[in-house]
Amino acid sequence: TNNGTTTTTNNGTTHLSPAEAARLRSSVQHLLHMVCWAPVLLFRQDCMMTGTFVWRWLLAARPDLAAHLMAELRDAWAWTVDERLGLFTDHVRPASPLSIPESEDTDEGRAGDDDDDDQDEDADEADEAAESESDQMNGSPVSHPSSSGPHRVFLSFLEQYWTSVVNGSPAERSAVVEMLLKAVADPHHLSCLPLSLGPRFQLLLLGLELLRARALPDVTTEHVFRSRVYRAAAAWFYHPPAWYDPAGLPPSSLYARTGRAAVEQDVHALVEFCRALRADADSVARSAADQHRPAAATPAAAAAGAGAGAGAARDQQAGGTAQEQEEARDAQYGTGVLTVLDPQRARELNDQVGLLLMLVGHEIDRIVTWHNPLNRIRLHFDGQKEFSVACSAYVTAQWARLVKTAWRISPRLAFQLPSRFPYPKLARILEAVVLDHAAEVVDVPEALPFLVTRENVAKNVPALRHLLYWAVVEPPQALALLHSDYLAHPFVTQYAIRVLRSFPPEINLFYLPQLVQALRYHSSSLVSDFLANASKRSEVMGHQLIWNTLTVEQGSGRQEQEFYAKATALRERIIANLSAEARRNYEDEFEFFDAVTSISGTLLPLDAHHRRTRLKEELRRIPVRGNLYLPTNSNTTVISINVNSACPMQSAAKVPILVSFQVLSTPALLQHGNTGSASPSQPMLRRRDTVLAIAGAQRDGLPGSSSQGEEDEQVGEERAEQKQTEEPEEAADDERASSSKRSDSSASREKRRERKQQQQQHREQAASAQSGDEGEPRSFGEDGESSAASSEEAPVDKGKEEAIPEDEAIFRAETGVSPSAPDPIAAAVADSTNNRTSSSSGDAEPAHTAAQLESARPQACIFKVGDDVRQDVLALQVIELSQRIFRHVGLDLYVYPYKVIATAPGYGVIQCVPHAKSRDQLGKQSEGKSLYEYFEYRYGPRTGLAFQRARYKFLQSMAAYSMLSYVLQMKDRHNGNILIDDAGHVVHIDFGFIFDISPGGNLKFERAAFKLSAEMVELMGGNEKAEQFKWFMSETVKAYLALREHSDAIVTLVRLMMDTQLPCFTERTIQNLQSRLSVGKSEREAAEFMSFKVVDSFSGLTSQLSTQLYDRFQSFSNGIDW
Predict the structure, then answer these.
(1) Quick one: how far is CA 870 from the chain centroid?
(2) Contact, 215 vs 178, CB < 8 A?
(3) Which of 238, 324, 655, 916 has the smallest number of CB atoms closer than 10 Å to its CB?
(4) What's the CA gap between 79 and 42, in Å, rounded?
(5) DSSP class of residue 857?
(6) DSSP 3-state assignment of 580?
(7) Would residue 744 be called left, alpha or beta, if left means φ above 0 and alpha means ψ between -120 and 50 degrees?
(8) Are the beta carbons of 831 and 644 closer than 8 angstroms?
(9) In what order do the strands lie in the sheet with 986-988?
(10) What is the reported pLDDT for 310?
């Protein structure tokens, strides 16, 4: 039949008309286009896996479409390169944990859950959120553009396709060749994110396969392509080494669902790359003299060199920094400069191959060590030892040749070598290099330690002038330059201050103790000027500086007296620079907490039975006024004192006090911006009226009002008088502000209007705030009955005895503890409930007051007199830094770096650990149950989900604290200084014995690296073969590996505190600390070292015996039985 478009013959064959055939071809091409582009446009790993499956099927079923299919895929690949997606993303690596603001550090999971039901609900919500985040990354609705997972799948398809066409015609291979030429056209466009390691070397391995198959059309293209492949491999090592864990990162990471398979794939890619690289080097050596292949200009050669050649002149005319040198070298290829493989060029390529084999071999060692820290045979990877290099045996000449080769590639690569090979010979060579080429590496921060050495500073070498425009380093490196080791060289000091000034106040706030100590080394005003100006940017920074300078004592030596004078002058300068508003904030804050702290000294001469009554009397006399915040948490607003829950605490020869406050989870002060101007025309955010209104509303409901009515009335009258006396002062301030305002420019008036709008927004937010704060640890007693029954704010005391409330009706005189006694922390819950349910007075705006009272929560602190808490500050500083490091590398470990503030010599404020009790208290209250028995009693049978979850959290925290206990040499680890929270986490407190001192006059009773008692091991499975114990040991070693990568920063924090004469320091403190951190050892050596410490703490006869004896000694002397 013939319908005008098709013709069917007798044998059934259909012939299309020309028009219909054209339409059909167009439809097929359009469908093929969509099949190829849809997975790439979606750019999700699951979509790419589906797409590659379809592509393979099409290639097998319709070979006639192969050319069209590969052409479409070539264009799609080029689009991902141009759009900088996945493997070609321009995303930089995450910020270092050394420069992460505290405000960005979440407190997720810090506080224990209130009961089992809450734990289950919270865990289910977390699992759902994690699953959703994982789906977004690996499948559902959106994939992150920096994820290299889709390219990993794409490359696997290309590898399989190349295997099938490697011996085919040039036309069949051309698509893959063009894709690879496009991919490595600019080696610096490849992603540097840690998780892109495998796909990068998977791509480069395919490139070497092209070279081996002689798939490139001519010699010129081969030389250019080979050089770019080598440079792309070397560019990975321009950055510091980074741990990554496809099997252990949070579920939001790319490899969360692929686990060990992704690690095996990465190791396989690296091993195969090394093999192919070695084979390519042999091939180059054999053909170095063979120059008979034609080098005609072809389209492929032009594509390979066009981008580089076009900008060659411009790049070569650029400056001489490391980046500019790299661009100039890349520009040489394709312009005829290096298109002939002469013997000299062959030797240079051979040197590059040797360097790359060493670097990639080291990367393999790192991956293997991280994923198999205990070196278990069944977890070995194929070929993992094939390219390991014993670099420690290299002689100086070998290192010199490697440095020369690395410098030829890029100066950045040369100065990254010590981060992987920390050997003195290599460091000395780089020190000599940087003196001769300082101007060329001013944009390489890693070169700084090799320029600024004690010897170079003492000699005042001319190269130090380049510090005036050197690249910015991390804050600890800048702090190290403020030490006396560098003789307060003006260029060095100026550079350090410039670096610190480049970071916001919240980052510098973390390093404040070291910054204040730096004052002692500098006769110029550079450091004091920086600190004074920093205090203007943040009121909280100013307050913390004042407290830190108050801890400086006037010693008998000349240096101590000079330091005291500098600290005093800085403090007076900060106070003098305060505006009228800021001065009132300062006076209110310091008067209030000085009054609370001084009660500790007032109670000392009293009989123990009368201290609690006197404590409550003293607290009721303290007015709550102004913009008050807890010194340990600047993101709060104090509105009242929970008087009834206050109690003195038992400690050796001292009387620390536990005081709970009702706080709002909103900052009392504006913490950012230029808040410290002396001009009253720049008012800061004030909540005086709001706080006074809340205080007035709570006046009738203050704790203790039922039994102390007259005293509460007196307190209310005092507050009313204070409010009345403050109003004229505020009016005068407003009048002065108005006068100043009239004289300001229009720009200043606009800024003030914006500031007032921001203030109003803050007040509205405060009025509508809901209870709790995601960024803050939950305080005790937030859930009423369940909190009162099972959640306790555990006191954190630095005394040699366990810090426990002291009251005859509550605690037995002989031990200070009574299992059946009422919990003093539960009183805070009652206070909290009373405060929330009390009626509002007419002094406040009802809407604001109701919202504020609803969101208020109790938070407790310990106030101490007679103890130097600066040791605790230093230890907790390292603990908090470790917390940031763990999160940075994806380790799911737990520490609780509670806050400690030294407010004066022998004075301090300590944050309480929420929802936690000491192991000794749990033992007494559970009638002597072991940890395992207590966990079964508290969380249910061992086969239940609640028990397994609690044990996991126990292991999380034990791994982190065990490692930190060894590094910091925490001693006095009796069961009164080890807490367990409601979730099952272990928390260590009391750091009075760290580094090089121990109890009993440094008699070294505790010989173990860290405390690992038999009951702890029982909860971990009972023996070293249990999977739970193996996981604990593995995570302890990984925590150690992660921490030691920042050993220089930790040593700097300690070194700058050495001149404080704290008792924990000796002449060998720094050397001992570096030894414990395995400075100068390889990753595998460090892992074996820490593994031995774990095994010795568990099974070593001396370690176990000393642990048991010390616990018995504490039981006999201090009543700490469990």
Answers:
(1) 23
(2) no
(3) 324
(4) 13
(5) E
(6) helix
(7) beta
(8) yes
(9) 916-918, 978-981, 986-988
(10) 37
State the DSSP string of 97-121.
GGG--GGGS--TT-SPPSSHHHHHH
Distance of alpha carbon 1104 from alpha carbon 1009, whole angstroms: 10
Residue in this structure with the two tokens 């240079």, named with its chain if needed: 348
Cα distance between residue 684 and residue 675, in whole Å: 6
Considering Cα of 327, then 331, then 333, then 337, what sign does the dihedral take?
Answer: negative
Kindly state the tokens that stand for 290. 């063979």
Query: In sequence order, what DSSP letters do the residues of 725-753 get, joined into one string?
Result: HHHHHHHHHHHHHHHHHHHS-HHHHHHHH
Distance of CA 291 to CAs 284, 288, 295, 337, 345, Å? 12, 8, 9, 15, 13
The answer for residues whose C-beta is within 8 angstroms of residue 683's C-beta and 6 or more apart is 579, 581, 737, 752, 755, 759
Q: Looking at residue 147, what DSSP letter applies?
A: -
**CA 501 to CA 499: how far, in whole Å?**
5
In the chain, the amino acid numbered 677 is S
Residue 285: phi, psi to the nearest 5? Answer: -65, -35
Q: Which residues have C-beta within 8 Å of that of residue 483, sequence separation ≥ 6?
A: 518, 521, 1052, 1055, 1056
- At 344, the amino acid letter reads Q
With contact defined as beta carbons under 8 Å apart, do 177 and 300 qualify?
Answer: yes
What angle is formed at CA 7 by the lines to CA 6 and CA 8, rounded to 5 degrees? Answer: 125
Residue 940 zone, left/alpha/beta (φ > 0; ψ -120 to 50; rest): left
Cβ neighbours around 414 below 10 Å, total = 29
Residues 6+ apart with CB under 8 A from 804: 649, 650, 795, 811, 816, 817, 918, 921, 976
Asked if 477 contacts 451 with a C-beta cutoff of 8 angstroms, the reply is no
Strand bridging mode 900-904 / 907-911: antiparallel
Q: Which two tokens stand for residue 16?
A: 């299309």
The span from the first CA to the last CA of the chain, in angstroms, equals 99
> What is the C-alpha to C-alpha distance for residues 260 and 19, in angstroms, rounded to an integer?
55
Q: Tokens at residue 1072, please?
A: 């001992």
List 7's β-bridge partners, or say none. 2, 15
Q: Which two tokens stand for residue 931?
A: 């940890």
The radius of gyration of the chain's CA atoms, rounded to the nearest angstrom, is 34
Rounded Cα gap, residues 1010 and 1103, in angstroms? 9
Beta bridge pairs of residue 658: 647, 862
Whole-angstrom distance, CA of residue 389 vs CA of residue 358: 6
State which amino acid sits at residue 1023.
N
SS3 of residue 639 by DSSP: strand
Cα gap 1048→1056, rounded to integer Å: 12
pLDDT for residue 923: 86
Q: Which helix (H) or strand (E) holds 141?
A: none
| Nearest alpha-carbon partner for 403 in 351, 439, 325 | 351
Tokens 């060289």, residue located: 489
Beta bridge partners of 641: 661
CA distance 1122 to 1117: 13
| Eight-state DSSP code of residue 288 | T
pLDDT of residue 1102: 66
- Residue ranges of the chain with per-residue pLDDT less than 50: 1-4, 103-142, 248-257, 292-318, 333-339, 672-749, 751-752, 755-756, 759-760, 762-848
Best CA proximity match to 823, nearest among 795, 800, 851, 863: 795
Look up residue 502 and give its two tokens: 């480049």
Q: How many CB atoms lie within 10 A of CB 841?
A: 18
Query: Is residue 361 within 8 Å of residue 355, measured between CB atoms?
Result: no
